[in-house]
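ARCHIVE CARD
SHELF: 3
SLOT: left
DATA:
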Amino acid sequence: MTTYFKSFTQEQQVPMLRTYDPTTSRYYCSQTLPEIINSQTITPNTVHSQLPKRLCVSHLTQEYQGTYRSQGLFFQTAQPLSYAAPFDLMTLTTGKSFTSSDYLDQFISGHEQFRVESLEQLFQQFPNSSLAIEALNLFREQHGVTPIDPNRLRYNECCFEQDIKITPVALVGPSEIYRPLAIHYNLPHYETPQDRPIFF
C-alpha cells in the first residue's frame, strides 16, 4: 500500500473535488469528501484535451513535501499509478495557469522525458524537488517558454486514469471544517500536510 495526498477545494464549507467543463469554461463538483470516504473510491476528475481524464495526487517524502493545495485527504491504495511527474504536469504545456482551464494548451515537444511509470523511477531520476524544478526551467527556457517561479509548485504529481479503491488515512485542513469530519470518520486530523508524520 502506498500513501498519497489528494487536495480538495471547498464550497459552502463542503470539501470537494471539481472537474472543469471546457464547453462552458466552468467547474462542477465531481465528488465530495464524505462521498469519497463513504465509498472508499476516488474517481478521476482532471481533464486536458491531450490526455485521458486523470486523478492527480502527490506522494509526500522528505524531498517532496509540497502539495497542490494545503487541505485534503491522505489515503492509501494498492493500485499502481498510470504515470508520474516530479512537478505539476501542466508546467510541461504552454499554458499559463497550470490548471484545467489551460485545457487546449499544447504539451511542449519532448515533455515525455519527465513522465515516468513508477515512484521508484521518479525518485531515481529526480531525487528531490529542487533538482526537478531546475530541470523543468531549463527545459522551458530551451523551448522559449517562461520559467516558473522555483518556489512554486514544489510537489510531485502521481496520476491514475481509473477509479481507485482507497483506505482513508487522515484529513488535513482548517479545524472548523475538517476536525468534525475527522471525528465523525474516526480519522486523525492535521492543520497542514506538513504537520503529520512524514511517513504513516
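SLOT: right
DATA:
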Amino acid sequence: MNLFFESSGQARVFLAVLPLGFLLALAVDLTRFAGRWRPVWDALCLLLGGVALMGLLLIFQDRGVRGYHALALALGAILYACGVGSLARRLAQRVRSLRKKPRKSCKDAGESKDTSKE
C-alpha cells in the first residue's frame, strides 16, 4: 500500500521538481530589484519555469502535469519563503536599519563631550 505515490518514478519526479519550485521562488523574490523591468522579468521567470518543468517531465518520461508536480512546486516555494528567503529578508532589513542610523564622527563626539563639561 502506497500512501502518496503510486510508483517510485513519481517520487523521483516529485523530488526533481521540488528544487525547481525553490528556484522559481528565489527568482520571483529577486524581481524586487528589477525596477521598471519587473513585468519582463516576471514573464521570463514564468516561461523559464515552464520550460524547466516540461524538460523534467521529458527526462523522466512522465506523461503529463499532475497534482504532485504542482504540490512539489508549491512545497519548494514554501521551503524557500520560510527558510532562506526569510533569513535573507531579515538580514537585508538589519543592514538597512544599520545604514539609517546616523554616525557620529570623531570630531563631533569630542565636541559633544566638551560642551557637557561646561
